[in-house]
Amino acid sequence: MIEDQEALDLAADWADISQGLKKDLGSQLHSQWIKPIQLGSFCKDTGTLDLFLPTEFSANWVADRFADRLSLAWKIARSEVRQVRITVHPRRRAMPDLRVAAAFEPAAPARPVAPAIAESTLAGLDPSLTFADFVSGSANVLAVNAAQRMAAVETPQFSPLYLKGSTGQGKTHLLHAIGHAYAANKPGARIFYCSAERFMIEFVQAMRSNEMIEFKSRLRGFDMLLVDDIQFIIGKASTQEEFLHTIDALMSAGKRLVVAADRAPQALDGVEQRLLSRLSMGLVADIQPADIELRRKILEHRLARFGNAQVPGDVIEFLARTINRNVRELVGGLNKLIAYAQLTGQPVSLSLAEEQLTDILSANRRRITIDEIQRTVCQFYRVDRTEMASKRRARAVVRPRQVAMYLAKVLTPRSYPEIGRKFGGRDHSTVIHAVRLIEELRARDADMDGDVRTLLRQLED
Fold it and tell me: Would you list which residues are annotated within the binding site?
C-alpha cells in the first residue's frame, strides 16, 4: 500500500508539473516532447527520479533542452528529489537508424553531476554551436557583431552583453558561439555556460550542503560567464542577491559576462532594481524575428548538412514563407520532413510537407482566405473576379485560376475538395492538377516563378 500511495503521489505531482510546463512552453512543444514522458521509479537513497521517453532521439532532445527545467520543477515539488534522469524507456527499442536521427540534432552534451560548476575549461558548451554554424542577416546583425566583439582578445567596449530575443531566434546558439570563439582566441581561458535555472539549482544545493564559499569561489574563478534564460531568475531574492554579487565580482576583475533573455531588462518582472541596473549598463542587443531572406539562408545552410538529401526549391520557399514564428520551428520542420522522407523512402515534395508538418504550419500561418487569394490574383493578372468560378477555358483565364488554386493550397489549410467548391464547384482532381502544374511551371519557367513569388509577398505582407 505504501508503494501504491507513493506512485499515486508521484503521478499527482507530475500532473501539476506537466500542466505548468504546458503553460510555459505552449501546447505544441508540450504535446510533442513533454506529454510522452512516463514516470519511472524514484530511489529515495540517491534521490534519483527516472523519466522515460519512447525513443533515444526524443530522450536526448528532452534532456538537452528541458533537463534543467524538469529538475527544478521536481525539486520544488519534492525536496527529496535531488536528480532527474531522462532516458529511453527500457522496454522500448531505439530508432532503427540512429545515424539518421543523429544527423539532425547534436547529441545532448553530457550533464555533469552536481555540483555542475566543473573544473573544465569549457563547462557546459555544446561543440556544435559555433559562429561558423550561425547564419546571420539583417534581423540579427547587431547581436552577431556584438557577440564577436565580446569573444575577441581585445577588451570589449561594453560589458555585460545582454542578448534579447523571443524563443527560438538564436540566443542560445550565440552564447555557445561566444564561449567557443573566446576559448580559441584566448587559450587557457575558463568559460562557464549555464541556464538561470541551473544557477538557481546549484545555489540552492550549495546552501543546503554548506558549500557556499566553494560555490562562490568556483563561479567567480571563470574568465567568462554565459547565463541563458535570465528571465527565470525572477522572484528569487537570495539567488538574485548572489547573482548581483557575482556580476560585481566578475566586472571588477575585468572578466566577461553575457546573458540572454526573451525580454528587455526593464521588462523582467520581480527583479531587484540594482540587478536591473547591472544588466542594463552594457549593451542590450536585439535579435529580431528572422525575415524571409534570412529564413531562406538558414534552410539552405541546414540542408547542406544532409549531404545528398534532395529538397526541391519550391519546398524550401514554402517552408521559409510559412514557418515564420521562430528559427527553431523552421529548422525542426526541415529536419522532420527529411527524416520522414528518408525513413519511408518517399521523395520530399510540397504535398509531403503539407501532410507531415500540419501542426507547425497551422501554428505559423496568418489566416489568409481563398477570397483574398482570388481577389489578389485577379488584380495581378487583370481578370474579372467572376472568372475564378466560370467555365471559360481561355488560357488568359485558366492560368490565373490555376495559380489561385495553387496559392489556396499553399497558403490555407483547406482541402482539395473545399478549394474546388470555391472555384465554381470544381472537382478535387482539377485542383490537384492545377497545383502540380504550377509546381512544375515554377521549376522550369522563371516568369511563372516570379509571378508566384510576387503574389506570395503581396498576400503575406
Answer: 168, 170-172
Supply the pLDDT for residue 112: 38
CB 124 within 8 A of CB 193: yes
Q: Which residues of 241-265 are buried (b: 16+ CB within 10 A; e: fewer)?
A: ebbbebbeebbeeebbbbbbbbeeb
Q: What is the pTM of this model?
A: 0.57
Q: How far apart are CA 390 and CA 239, in angstroms?
A: 69
What was the pLDDT predicted at 63?
Answer: 85
* Per-residue model confidence (pLDDT) at position 66: 85
Angle CA 238–244–247, to nearest 5: 145
**How far is it, in rounded angstroms, from Cα 452 to Cα 442?**
8
Query: Tens digit of pLDDT for each residue in 164-204?
Result: 998 889 999 999 999 999 999 999 899 999 888 778 777 87
What is the third-level CATH fold of 2-94?
GMP Synthetase; Chain A, domain 3 (3.30.300)
Which positions make up the binding site for ATP?
A: 168, 170-172
CA 274 to chain centre: 31
Q: Which CATH superfamily is domain 370-460 in?
A: DnaA protein, C-terminal DNA-binding domain (1.10.1750.10)
Q: CB under 8 Å to 265, separation ≥6 — which residues?
A: 162, 271, 276, 279, 280, 284
CATH 3.40.50.300 correct for 122-287: yes
pLDDT at 375 over 70: yes
Task: Provide CATH 1.10.1750.10 ranges for the chain.
Answer: 370-460
Q: At 346, is the secondary structure helix, strand, or coil?
A: coil
Longest dimension (CA), the chain: 84
Query: What number of H helices and E strands is found in the chain?
Result: 20, 9
Round to the nearest angstrom and report the end-to-end CA distance of the chain.
62
